[in-house]
Design a protein that fits this description.
mainly alpha; 2% strand; single chain; 178 residues
């Protein structure tokens, strides 16, 4: 499978777009949501772009999607005159390298993990933190997590629950069932 041209291919796929939002929600809430922590821990890809969030085909398509360097924020990656486009995977790796270089310069080269990746992913996928707080998205996440899409997943071997988050909040009592 060759690279997919343009971020719009992902944005126009409602299932993949939702999965990306769940991944970003989990990166944002790993410290206070047990289901977020479980889903992130169940990934097999260093960039978290794998099951339980994506099928193998969706992960490959997402990582190989071409994005224009000029569409990235000023801090993300200086556009090279020789680079017309780069894959999402290469862009994320470049952004992480830039981040780690800045951390080393400050005397602390340790990334904080998912929290450090969130701003990069928001920028790469052209989302805002507010998108992860929209009522419609949160209602769907609470109602079904990733379970509504997992029946389509070709490699769902994870033992981690990927479903509704009602009982997954740390320090909160479970909400009443439906």
């Amino acid at each position: 499978m060759g690279p997919t041209t343009g971020l719009s291919a992902i944005q126009n796929n409602p299932n993949v777009s939702y999965r990306i939002q769940v991944l970003l929600y989990d990166l944002s809430n790993v410290g206070n949501d047990l289901l977020s922590e479980k889903r992130l821990s169940a990934t097999t890809n260093e960039l978290y772009i794998s099951a339980p969030y994506f099928t193998d085909a969706e992960a490959t398509q997402t990582l190989s999607t071409l994005v224009e360097p000029s569409n990235l924020s000023k801090e993300s990656m200086a556009p090279s005159p020789n680079v017309l486009s780069t894959t999402i995977q290469d862009t994320i790796h470049q952004r992480l390298a830039n981040f780690l270089d800045k951390r080393k310069a400050s005397g602390d080269s340790r990334p904080c993990g998912p929290h450090d990746m969130l701003p990069i992913y928001l920028d790469v996928f052209k989302l805002q933190r507010g998108d992860l707080k929209k009522k419609k998205f949160l209602a769907r996440l609470r109602r079904s997590g990733l379970e509504d899409l997992m029946s389509k997943c070709e490699n769902n071997t994870s033992d981690a629950k990927v479903g509704p988050m009602d009982n997954g909040k740390k320090g909160e009592k479970g909400k009443k069932g439906h």
